[in-house]
Every structure is written in C-alpha cells, then in structure tokens.
Amino acid sequence: MWRSIRQLPSFSVRSTRTQSLPYSSFLSLSPFLSKSQPSAFFFATSKTLRSVATSSPSTTILWSFSGVINASRSITSRCISSFSTQQPEMVVDWNDAVSCPEVGDDGAVEEGAKRSIPVRAYFFSTCVDLRGLMEQNKQNIIPPTSRMTNYVVLKFGDLSCSPGPGVFISGSNCCFMVVFQYGSIVLFNVRECDVDQYLKIVEKHASGLLPEMRKDEYEVREMPALNTWMQGGLDYIMLQFLDIDGIRTIGSVLGQSIALDYYVRQVDGMVAEFTDINRGMEKTGTFTMDSKKLFQIVGKANSNLADVILKLGLFERSDIAWKDAKYAIIWEFVRDEFELTQRFAGLDFKLKFVEHNIRFLQEILQNRKSDFLEWLIIVLISAEIVISLYDLIKRSL
C-alpha cells in the first residue's frame, strides 16, 4: 500500500482539480541543507492517482520525488499556497489522517467496499397469512420460480429495476422483502430508518405476535470484477452480482436462522425451569409440580421440535440450490456461516435433556398416584373390616 521512502530529503505533491474554474495548488517539502555539501539529484517516475468523491469534483494528484541522497538530514515541511481561489482554505498536517477510497498497490481504487447491500432479518410472530399479504401487494410480488410455497418475495422502490449481470442493487432505490409463513422477514437494501414501515406491512397479516422481536444482520457485497462466483468473509458474502435467486437463497437461510434462535430460547426456558426443579429436589427431596403443568411442558417441547423440522424445513435443501450449483455454494456457505446444523444439534441435545427430566418426573407422579390408590384400597378394606366387626358384635348382642 503506502511504502516508506528512505534517503529522499525532498518531497513534493502537486494537486490539480477539474471544475468550472481552473484551480491548482502546490505543496512543497524541502530540507535545510548545507550549501557546501555536495548533492546528487535523481528523478522518480510520477504516479497519478484518481480520487473518487461524491461531494467534490474529480481530483488528480501527481506525486513527484526529487532530492539529495543524504539519510542523516531530517525533513522539515512547509505549505506554500500559490494561487488564491474561491475554495475555502484547508490546512492538513503531515500526520493528520485523510479519508480516501481504498487504493491498492497498483494505484487502482477498490470498488468492493462501495457496493454493499445491508441484509436484516426479523422475527416477531409465529405465523403470517401469505395469501392476504399477496392480495394487498399484488404490484410488488415477484413470481416464484420454485415449488416452495412457504414464502413470498416482494419488491419495492424502482419496480422496473431487474437485478442481474450489470445491474446492481447496491446504491439503487430498489429493495426487497422476503416473508416466510412461519414468521420470519428478511429485508434487502432497506435503510434502518425505513425498516418499521416495511414491518408494518407484514404485521397486518401476522398472528401469534411475540412480546419481543428478534433481529439479525448480514451483508452482501457486489464485486463484478471478482474472479470467482462468490467469496465468503466474516459476517458478509461477496458476489459478482446479487439477483432474485440469490435473494431467495440467502433470505431462506437467514429466515431459518432467526426463527431457530427463537425456538432455541424457548427450549432454554424449559431447561432453566427443570434446572430449578432439580435444585429444589436436591434441597427438599421432593417437588411440587402437578401433572397438568408437566403435560404442558411436554406439549411445548414436542411442538417446538415439530415446528423446527416441519415449518422451518431446516433439513430441506432449497430448490434453487438443487437446480444451480452456484446457488448451492451460496446456500452451503451461508448455512455454515450461521451454524444451522450445529445449532440444531444443540437444540436437539437440550430437548433430550428436557425429555429425560419429563420421563423422570412422570415416573414420580405415577408412583405418587399408585401410592395414593394403594392407601385408598387399604382404607376401604379397613372400613369394610370395621363394618363387619360392628355387624357381628351387634348380632351377638
């Protein structure tokens, strides 16, 4: 990137700016050298770097190096303004940081950081009426290309925009919303300040609203000059371009991930409840849970497992990934990024712990019931014996 220049006692920077009025400035840094000391001058090839900015005209910076080969002299700097212009004066110290686009070793501006698409996933209900949602947003629906019927893709903003090769979502007015029947919502290229208005569109058709909304974030970067179809990174994925099938593929994994997080927390609550029961049994030697409460926990554990397997389709491969290998690569990478397989394994282990405790407590409750029936039979037999004795005594008298 930037390299240190040794044995260059002088350094000059020339900046020219293209705009309606001619403008130029010259910055010169020169050392105080002894006149009697011999010197040898040399010239280095100039480099021209173009700085891209959105709020100012294009700028061309010419770097030129010249000087005396003497490493023992320190370099002092001074700023010389050569022309007066209407632009506001700005003085930059040598040690001040200057913001600029990322520049590579070959002088090219990195374009990957500029084309970033924010992806936000939300989960605030357990069911969404997709038919009603599609009925009220017919103009925004993107026709499905697979047999999957548990989600719908809506397009907002510039409806004429068709993402694909040469057409990029990042930086455009086009945004997408993927809504799943089990309650997950994934937004692509939606600003943080506009999230609420898109969530309200789905909230009208949602049921089973949760007291707390779950949220997760991700990032997709578009890099048309990428050598491969996709390249993964920490909390982001880089693609040559993001199209509708890519949105469906990435959205399906994020929707499953944010919903799985909700079910994992539900199971964590059951684990914590059984942990408290076991600690109480450790201290008192008994527990006070009734059979109705225990059966409710059994039903909740079974329904959570069924929802994860059936509603989320956690083990069902995307139809798009089946048809095209490049989307299969995206699907597998994002699943590994969000650790869906490992998280489900953890969920399954916790459910086995809950199942073991339920079986144990059921046996205790069953034993209690058996003991009660046994004592009831003993009482009835004793009562019958007492009545028989009373009858015998009464007859003998």
User: What does the average pLDDT come to?
Assistant: 75
**Strand count, sense and closure of the main sheet?**
7 strands, mixed
What's the count of strands? 12
The number of helical elements comes to 7
Calculate the terminal CA-CA distance, rounded to whole Å. 120 Å
Show unreliable segments.
Answer: 1-113
Keywords:
5-stranded antiparallel beta sheet; DUF155; 397 residues; alpha+beta; 3 domains
Short description:
This protein is of the alpha+beta class and 397 residues long. Helices cover 39% and strands 22% of the residues.
Overview of the structural elements:
This protein is an alpha+beta fold and 397 residues long. The chain folds into three domains: 1-106, no CATH class; 112-226 and 246-258, no CATH class; 259-380. The protein has seven helices and twelve strands. It has helices at residues 130-136, 195-203, 244-284, 291-311, 319-323, 325-337, 340-396, and strands spanning 11-17, 23-29, 41-43, 47-51, 59-68, 116-128, 151-156, 175-180, 184-188, 206-222, 230-233, 236-239. The chain has a seven-stranded mixed sheet with strand order 7-8-9-6-10-12-11, sandwiched between helices. Strands 1, 2, 3, 4 and 5 form a five-stranded antiparallel sheet that branches. β4 (47-51) and β5 (59-68) form a beta hairpin. α3 (244-284) packs antiparallel against α4 (291-311), α3 (244-284) runs parallel beside α6 and α4 (291-311) runs antiparallel to α7. It is elongated, with a radius of gyration of 36 Å. InterPro entries: DUF155, RMD1/Sad1-interacting. Residues 177-346 form the DUF155 domain.
